[in-house]
TrEMBL record:
Record protein name field: Stress up-regulated Nod 19 protein
InterPro entries: Stress_up-reg_Nod19
PANTHER family xrefs: STRESS UP-REGULATED NOD 19 PROTEIN
Keyword Signal recorded: yes
């Protein structure tokens, strides 16, 4: 569902109602450990794309509580590479189980997905894009993401996916990072399936080893790059409170359409605003959806993920309360971490226990805002949260005693009748 709002009012609303946001806490202690790793190398020529999957990557082993996972692209000398040379579309990490006596075959892997809510996509535990250098991933105390407790006969391993686009010498840097199909001269996807003519840009057009359009006469050599990632963790103990990972996708319209199965498309297109809206200085694209949180609890951390053109994302409770607003930071220079025109950070929300409590099966509203001053292809509006689940007796206490109308206050005030909200 899309709506248009005045950009100034939108930003004021999000700023005024946002929960306390914080950078990652720099906690040190004898139990807290940290280590930095390098991915296998990936090779990029000017204008080329690398979208590689690496299995059994280096990561701490054992029954642990993950506290943070930070990453960036570096060259063979360990020097950070700026986004205007190599655009980091995304990196994701996810655990899987491998049989101890297996043969290491792909069909023997059992993926260990996050807790939802998209069933067929967005399974990762951690994942970021261009914002990776200035987006907090710290899990606040006393919480942790539990890993390393596989079923008997299995061992836990991890895979890493790095999707990077070399934009040296290309004719249109923004068009290349938005994966415009015409710039890649692509009409079929990586599996050889025809791409619909209405699909003008996105992941289907910038898969591994594709090539974006180059300026005539540009000379540049190949580069060997790496994803450098730093993991911070604790040994698991009864003192750590486990949290569940949920990733919401604003493109999932299943609940709004009365369907039972999620329909997460991951990406969407922002059309250029009309001349009428441009005259009113109202070039903001607002995408809104609702998704159900299967298990309730306290939301203790949240952040959004957007692409160039994004101006903020937010998550709202069923009663309309703003749970978290995540705002982008755009770079202003040329150095790595401050590249002009690129999102170099997304703000994160750290929420005190009890301040963002949600029930089992609560319908949450996801909002993603983009500037529509120009068209944007292949954009995303994801929201990542960590939830500390309540015990059964707490859920019963939180459950409503009678059916009430379901109302939302954002982006406009609207309500469903009580008889219908009972089915949500």
């Amino acid at each position: 569902m899309k709506m248009a709002l005045l950009p100034v009012l939108l930003v004021i609303f999000l700023s005024a109602h946002a929960p306390l946001q914080s950078e990652a806490l720099n906690v040190r202690g004898p139990r807290l450990k940290s280590k930095t790793f390098l991915s296998p190398p990936f090779l990029l020529n000017p204008g080329s794309v690398s979208n590689k999957f690496y299995y059994d990557i280096d990561l701490p082993r054992g029954h642990l509580a993950l506290k943070s996972f930070d990453a960036e692209v570096v060259d063979e000398n360990g020097v950070p590479v700026p986004l205007h040379e190599t655009y980091l579309h995304h990196w994701i990490v996810e655990p899987y189980y491998a049989a101890k006596n297996g043969h290491g075959l792909p069909e023997e892997r059992i993926l260990k997905r996050n807790s939802g809510v998209c069933e067929d996509v967005l399974w990762q535990y951690y994942g970021l894009g261009s914002e990776t250098r200035h987006t907090a991933t710290w899990v606040p105390d006393p919480y942790g993401i539990e890993i390393g407790n596989p079923p008997e006969g299995y061992e836990e391993k991890w895979f890493l996916n790095v999707h990077a686009i070399d934009t040296r010498g290309v004719t249109d840097k923004l068009g290349c990072v938005e994966c415009r199909c015409d710039l890649y001269n692509v009409t079929v996807d990586e599996y050889g399936r025809s791409i619909d003519e209405s699909y003008t840009g996105g992941l289907y057009c910038c898969y591994d080893q594709t090539q974006c359009r180059m300026k005539e006469g540009f000379n540049g050599g190949p580069r060997e790059l790496f994803l450098r990632y730093t993991v911070t963790w604790l040994a698991w103990s009864d003192a750590v409170v486990p949290v569940k990972i949920y990733i919401f996708d604003v493109t999932d319209s299943a609940l709004l359409e009365g369907k039972t199965e999620p329909a997460c498309k991951v990406e969407y297109q922002v059309e250029e605003c009309s001349s009428e809206n441009r005259a009113k200085n109202d070039c903001v694209d607002v995408m809104v959806t609702k998704q159900v949180l299967p298990r309730g609890g306290d939301i203790v951390f949240g952040k959004g993920h957007q692409h160039p053109g994004g101006i903020g994302a937010s998550l709202h409770a069923q009663d309309g309360r703003l749970l978290c607003a995540s705002m982008p930071t755009y770079g202003t220079g040329t150095e790595a971490g401050n590249e002009a025109g690129y999102i170099v950070g997304m703000s994160s929300c750290y929420l005190a226990p009890g301040t963002a409590t949600v029930r089992d099966g609560e319908a949450l509203t996801v909002v993603s805002n983009y500037s529509s001053e120009r068209r944007h292809d292949g954009v995303m509006g994801l929201f990542y949260i960590l939830v500390a689940e309540h015990q059964a007796e707490q859920q019963q206490h939180l459950a409503p005693n009678n059916r009430q109308a379901l109302c939302f206050s954002f982006p406009v005030s609207w309500c469903l009748p009580a008889w219908l909200s009972g089915y949500m």
